[in-house]
Design a protein that fits this description.
mainly alpha, 85 residues, single chain, 5 helices
Amino acid sequence: MRRTQVYLDDHLWDALHARARHQKTTISELVLEAVRERYLGCREQQMKAMQKFVGIRKKRSESLDAVENVRRLRRGDRLERLHKK
């Protein structure tokens, strides 16, 4: 962890001070939370989404062979349904 210094105007300082007192935490923790949400929130959400996505094909009992998958689709009535549109 690194230390940094931030200058806050009086209005922002008062708002953070009141919120910290109300939540029984420190101004530093409030600032860290806000920075994490702003700059890491999207990245963390993307990582969670990718972790849920990884490996979903493993749960399927179907073959992963792309050629066989295409042949199976062609045998069906999919092409006929597309021509009707």
